[in-house]
Every structure is written in structure tokens, then in C-alpha cells.
Fold each of these.
Amino acid sequence: MANLRPRRPLRGPRLTRRQIAARLQWAREHQEWLLPQWRNVVFTDEVRFGLVSGDRRIRVWREPGHDQRLNLARELVPYQGGSIMFWGGIMFNQRSPLIQIQGTMTAEIYEENVIQPIIQPLRNEFGNNFIFMDDNARPLRARRVEPALEMGQIVRLPWPANSPDMNPMKTFGTL
């Protein structure tokens, strides 16, 4: 018991029975996929970097009773002091260009800056075997985006709700 220390608990989304079943079904449907099938998948994600950390994990060392030292105070900066967003994709042996997104990702920005100039040419290069994986963010699933994907014959890999762990981009984005 001497090695026990208080730790922050792991955090994750609360999953409904339906979401758990969808994750399990996804895993069963794709567990037999071989490397040639996964080579046709482009995994994509967007990330926003703030100029100021907003995670409140910064720690300071101070003596008991000296809580009010101004040089130890952390200023609160609204909206992380400004931020910048990027979108990118990875495939088996290549990667997409890194696209800077001005402002907030909207369906219009997604279609005009990602689907048309990046995803459609990749689909043309890979042919009918091309599979596109994005996440369930609202702008990426908006009604405006669907016709562009259908017209370009772009097939999406299903993405169960609350399942960021299925996309390797999520893992690499935390490094």
C-alpha cells in the first residue's frame, strides 16, 4: 500500500448500449481486413492549437501559506489567446497536404478546402477501392457535404459515435 498515490481517473465518453453495440459490430466487420484493404483507407482529422494552454494542468511549487504570490498567478486568457486549425490525412504510404483552416470549420469550408481539392483527387488516384474516414463532427456530416461525396463516388468508412480511438490520427495528434 506504500506505493498508492492519488491519481486522476482516466476519462472517456459515456457510451450507451447502442454505441457499445455499434463499436463491437464495427470491430467484428473489420477484424478480418488485411493490409491490402487498409492501404485504401485515408484517415483524416482536424486539430486546433491554442496560443495559451487551456488544460489547467500547469503546476507551481510554493510553500504553505504563500498562496497569494503574484509571480505564481496564472493569467486567464479568453479563447486560448487565439488559435489556429489544421486538417490533414494519412494513408498507408503517403500523407495529404496539411491544410490551414481559417476560422472555424464549416461545411462550406470543408467542401471547398478539403473534399474538392484533396479528397476527390485522392479518390481518382486510388480508384474504386478508395475509402475515406473522417469523424462525426457536424460540419463534416452536414447535408451540404453529402452530395459532393456522392458525386465524387467517395465511400466513407463507418465511424461509430464516440469512437476517436479507431482513427490513428487521434493517437498521433496527442504526441
Amino acid sequence: MKDIAGGAAECISYQKAAYSNSGHYVSLIMNPYLLVFVACAAVVSAEVHQFNIGYRPNVRQRMNAEGKLAEYEQERQERLTEKSLQLVQSSSPIIDYEDMAYMVQISLGTPAQNFVLFIDSGSSNLWVPDITCAAGKDATCGSYCKSTPYDACLTFCQEECCTKTVSKRKVLSTADACQSKHRFNASLSSSYVTNGQKFDMTYNTGEVKGFFGVDTFCFTNTSACCTDQTFGQATTIGEAFAKQPEDGIIGLGWPALAVNQQTPPLFNLMNQGKLDQPYFVVYLAQIGPTSQLNGGAFTVGGLDSAHCDSNVDWVPLTTQTFWQIKLSGVASGTYSQSPTAGWQCAADTAASFIGAPKSVVSSLAKVVGATYVPGTGAYFIDCDAVVADIVFTINGKTYNMPSSSFIVSAGPGPCMFAFYDLTAGGFYPAWMLGPPFMRAYCHVHDMQNGRLGLAKIL
């Protein structure tokens, strides 16, 4: 690092660097096992941090590209039927892990052990696989390693899984999903403390079971760290988790949503005085059909002036579980719907598409020219279709979402219409306003004042 007058700093890396409003350059450096997010601090505020969000098309998109979407959807519906009773009886939502697509890198322990995790504002727990998961079995290459571009493959998989010649890559040789994950070893951490509590979390893909531990948490290679972070150590994860490259999940929701009322990492950072402001900001870039190392930016402790307009529209939360607000109306072309009571709507980084009531989805699909394909559970549309924006009314203001945000590439052939039918029940709000909307507006999460900010993307 070379100091520069005025408190700036210069970092030389193997990948491009992004500048944050805190005066940090955030550079991406590849090593044989993980994508390392390196924050090179300048002499400005050390308590606002920004780093890249990685992106990988969700399982549904990948199955469509491989011509296996109908087969996958049949298996998925069978799982949903099995889980339906649990959904009714559960006090917390059953989450579709296979729909997740955005991730960051974190570390746990002293010295640091690195993990790539999905970011999920629809849940509040942090969990990673424990060393006892698939104990005694050699690490293997996940099936996703076979189809992932070389540079992105190095993010998720061991080097021997990522030969540049795709046909020579190894594939998963066992159904045990833990064998292709990075696993936490408590015996290697001098700061680890036992907790004693067990957990059992239900996903559409299967259950995750294990126990809680306590250790130091960091966003990898930054000073955004907190002590005494409780996290889940999974000893069993469902077989279907092998389809996804990430090791686990970092929940961004409120503490009240967490299993066993554990404090989520970002709230822990705030409570320990590690943030300039009680905010975290999600900016998502427009995406293509393949994995991207730079799918957006995640800012912790302040605003994101590099990607987001300085004018933030603040919307009060209706509950402090999800990042949940009231959606008053939706319109596109000749279609408009504004129920008297509005809808409860959760901002959700985990769901790759937007979940809405079935009648709304079918009406929007009709007006933009998307067609439902039986057996796939999805709507398809011409990738070059010229269609009207979809307009949301929130807190008295309108927000336009252009077609570039909701017409999503999914391999050869037509694109996917980025909406899905959401059956609200039990704990769920009526809408899950996912990444397509976030690609049009930055989301500023205020953990102190219970509000969600929306800002235009620059």
C-alpha cells in the first residue's frame, strides 16, 4: 500500500477495485480456494465499509439453461408438499434456499476461517457447516463447479475442481452436501466459546441441524468485526444443498425473526459501536446469464455514494421481523391494482425473483406478454421485448422498475419473467420484493429507527 496526500490510499490487486464513500478501495484478490475481499483503509472513517456482492444464477435459472427445469420443478413441488404441514405449524418462514443468488465473504474465529455465504434479509441467523458435518470424508467438488466460469469457480471450489477445460473438471461424487463446503473447526480458533443450544431450521431444500457457538465475526479482510457473535454450526444439511455453491447463510433480518432470538451480525456490529451510522446498503447491478464476481455492492455503517443517489426516500417498517413495508399499489400498461388496505411487502435479498399474489403475477405477465409454461413453474418472455415499466406505489410515491430488471436471461432461448406466485400464509407477507426491484433502487436498511430507504441507482 502506498500513502497518498489527503488521506487516500492505493491498492494494487489482481482484480479491479471499487471505491467506497468511506475512503476505502475494495479490491478482489483470488487465491486457490476463496474470493478474498480486501479493504485497504485510508485515513478517513474506518467504520464505513464497502465490498462486492458476488452473483450466481439461481438453481431454477441454471436448470432451465441445462434443459432440466421441468424435472427440477417436479422434484421441488414434491418437497413443497412434504413441507406444507411444517409451514402451517412453524412460527418462522420456510425459506427456498435454491432461489438464492447473492453472496458475500465472511470469516469466523481466531485466526480467521473464511466462508462464502448467501445474504438473506428474509432471515436473521448466521450459520456455516461444522467440521463434524461429513466427518471423516474427503472434500469433493460440488456439481456447480462443473458449470461455473473459471474465475468464479475459484470463489467456491478448490483449485483442482476448476480446470480451465470444463470437460476435465471433477464432479460431486457423493450426496453429502457438506463434503463440498468449507467447514468451521472450533478447535482451530482461540476465541471460540461453546453455547450449548441446538437448532433445526427448515428450508424447502431440506433441514439444517446443528448447534450454536460463539466467536469473532468479520467481513473478510476488513475491520468490520464484532466479538461474541453467536452462529450456527451445522452438523447436517439437506442433500439438495449440494446444488448451491455457498457454504451457508448470513441473515440480515431483525433479531425477533432469529431462531433462539440470536442477535444477527449487523445488529451486533451496531450494538458494539463498530458502525458510523446504523445502516447497511444493498446495491445490485444488472446481471447476465452467468456468475459474476461483481454483482453489486454491500455497504456497512453508512450510505453508498458511489452507486446510490443522495436523496433517500424513507419508508417506515410495519413490523421489525422482516424488512417489511406497506405496498399500496402496482401498475403496468393497462393494468393497475390498489387494494384498500394495500399489501404487506418484505424487501428480500434472498429471493432472486419477486413473489406476489397469483392473480397479480398472471395479470402483470399478460400485460407485458410473458407466457406461463406448464410444468416449469415459470413465466417466459422474449429477451428483446419492449414493454412498459412496472410501477410500485410505496408511502405515497411511485417507483418505476424497467424491463431490464425483470426480464432475466436464463440460458439459450427466451428469458424468464422475474415474478413467481407467492402463497402468503402463516408468517409470510403477501409480497417478497426481491432483487429485480433492488436492481432499480438501492435499499438502505436503518437498524436503529426501523425504516427502509429507497434511493435511485446512479
Amino acid sequence: MKDSIRPAKLADTIAEHLEQLIVEGSLRPGEKLLPERELALRFNVSRPSLREALDKLERRGLLHSGRGGATFVAPLLGQSFTEPLHAVLSARPETTLDYLEFRTEVEGAAAYYAALRATDVDRAQIAKRFEAMEAAHGTDDPQDEANADADFHLSIYEATHNVVILHIMRALAEMLRKDVFFNRAKLYQRTGVRQLLLTQHRALFDAIMAGDPAAARVAAESHINFIRDALVEISRADARLEASLRRIAGGDIVAEK
């Protein structure tokens, strides 16, 4: 009896191609796919085969349908992962240091692999995001600068070509934006910190563009450690001030001798 080789079903081939684009990060969470008719023409396939492929990916949680029948890319790590974590971190400010400890390791690894693996396309994107961060720095708008900061770091994650780093940090992207904004609001209390943060990002950018993994890791870890240490010192200073104010206010509830 001869073994027979069955050709792959067209819908499965389409689904595998789209899945690869999602996993490698070419299709980003929240992005809207072309309308079904245009997408079928782009792939040169029939609409029934395309629809079957889209349905398959939707059942697997890689795509989801929106208003008007539009199809969107779903996050690989959904809200069931990020929302409870964000709620815990928001309710317990002391966990900020745990998050920064985690980021120190991830940012160091991401910078290392980005410097090692970035393609010309990746480096162009990182440069574009860095230039946007420099421009935001000149506006004196903390929120714009925070968003540009987060986008710069996300471009580094994409350049790692490590799908685990990419998708975990993409899932935490909103937390990253809020965390960056909080950190900047605190850090800006110190004279010269805004320029120092930009200088640190420049060192990270230069190391990645130069293809120096060791220097990139050091730059990334030093950047996050600076933020952590500065926040600890600011927190201690706030605590000392509050203690001083309590000592003054305490006299209002003490009976005169």
C-alpha cells in the first residue's frame, strides 16, 4: 500500500500564514485587517477559504470581530492577564519596586538581544522612535514624553526577535505607559532629571545601533536602576516630610499643661 500525500487545505495555509504574522509581531494587537473582499484579493484566494481561515483563528483567540463585521488582531495575552495584575499594582504602591525589578531584567535582556539581532528595518524603527522621544522632550509635556518613552522601549522589544519578550511586554504596554508617566511625575521633582533620562536613553540607543550587546544591557539596566533608586529616595523624603507635618499637627490635639 502506497502512502499518499494530501495537499494542505487552502484555509489552513491561510490561517498558518496569518498566525505567523501575529506571533512574530508583524500584525499588532488591535490592528484592523483589510475588509474580507480586499484581503481575499491580496492573498489571491477565494472568500470562502479566507472566511474559514479567519473563523479558525477567531476560535483560537488570535482574532476577534468588531462592529460592522471588521476583524481585529487580538492580544496573545489578553485582559484576563493584564487587568488583575494592574489592579494589584495600582492598589499596592510598594509593588512598584517589584515591577521595576522585573523590568530591570527584561530591559537588560531586550537591549542585549536587540543589539545582537536587530535588522536594518528594526534599527530604522528604533531611530524613528528615539527621534520622536527627543521631540517630545522639547515640548515639556510629561504625557507626550511618557508615550514616546514607552514606544521607544516597545521598538526595542520588537527588535529582539524573541516572541516571549515581545508579547509579554506588549501585554503590559498600557501598564508600562502608566508606570512611565508616574515615574516621570516623581522624578521631575529633581533638578536636571529630564535631561539625565534622555541622556540614558541616548546611551541605550547608541549601544543598540552600534550592535554592542554588552553595552546595551548595561545601559538598559542602569537606566531602570536609576529610576528605582531615585523613586526610593523620593519616597523616603516624602515620608520624612509627612512625619514632620504630623509632629507639628500633633500639638493641636494635646491638652495644655
